[in-house]
Amino acid sequence: MSNNSNTIAAILAGAAVGAAIGILLAPDKGSNTRAKIKENLGDTANNLKDSFEASSEVLREKFASATENFDTTFDEILSNVSHKADDVITFLEKKLADLKSQNAKYQTKKEA
């Protein structure tokens, strides 16, 4: 998780603990206190769920970006290799033509 996600989770956890302590120390009927605790737990669970979903979205975006960067880099490498292969083939074709020419001269001298 990123630092922002950790910070958000820590703030939410602190708020939940603070709210729980405040409710427990407040002079109120037990049934009211239990209802408030239940409500705060529900809010905290929703906040944590939202935080998790936001973090998941950030991770999905980063993964998509990394995948796109990889695809682009891979395509560039293939393009460069393709150009280099063409250069090598051209070089080898020239060398082959030179060898054929030298061989033809050799054959001509041998026949004479």
UniProtKB/TrEMBL annotation:
The keyword Transmembrane applies. Gene3D superfamilies: Apolipoprotein. Keywords: Membrane, Transmembrane, Transmembrane helix. The chain crosses the membrane at residues 6-26. This is Gas vesicle protein. It comes from Flavobacterium limi.
